[in-house]
Known about the structure:
Elements: H1 33-56, H2 81-87, E1 90-95, E2 99-100, E3 104-113, E4 120-129, H3 135-144, E5 149-150, E6 157-161, E7 167-174, E8 177-185, E9 188-190, E10 193-195, H4 205-219
Antiparallel strand pairs: 1-3, 2-3, 3-4, 4-8, 5-6, 6-7, 7-8, 9-10
Amino acid sequence: xxxxxxxxxxxxxxxxxxxxxxxxxxxxxxxxxxxxxxxxxxxxxxxxxxxxxxxxxxxxxxxxxxxxxxxxxxxxxxxxxxxxxxxxxxxxxxxxxxxxxxxxxxxxxxxxxxxxxxxxxxxxxxxxxxxxxxxxxxxxxxxxxxxxxxxxxxxxxxxxxxxxxxxxxxxxxxxxxxxxxxxxxxxxxxxxxxxxxxxxxxxxxxxxxxxxxxxxxxxxx
Length: 221
């Protein structure tokens, strides 16, 4: 038997709670960290993939080449006219294996000057950086090699070492182009007698600089 509802305060019934069909709104959900990480990884992969695609198509984004070009035979381009006046007649030359890739190209040349006995050997290397800018690390690398004397009037940066007056090493950077020139005295022993060069190599950085400047102009033609 159902009992009668109780009266509250002598009048009317107690109002029951009203139930709504829609539940109360939930608090906003926080983004899950792993979703952000996944999104970043996908974006980074897309950027790297795009860069790799451009690189593989031979169009890497790199420094301005400033008109410099690759050459297969550096010995045919470099003249060494100033060094020939200081060291003697240019006798012979030889090239090293050539590197020519989308990111970098490099070629070298070795030249002998003066007499067969007691002459000088000059080695020059030309490196063209097509993707990475060598500027930020050039000075540190030069100093690590012992080149501490700055040379003005050539390229963006240049350093020289006289190798205790037994030769000389010059390194020059001009934008993406890097040059290194080394001079060594050639000593020979004939019939038990050592023959060495009698040429004074003090100040040899002057003709070295002149010849590198001429080569820089030739490589931009």
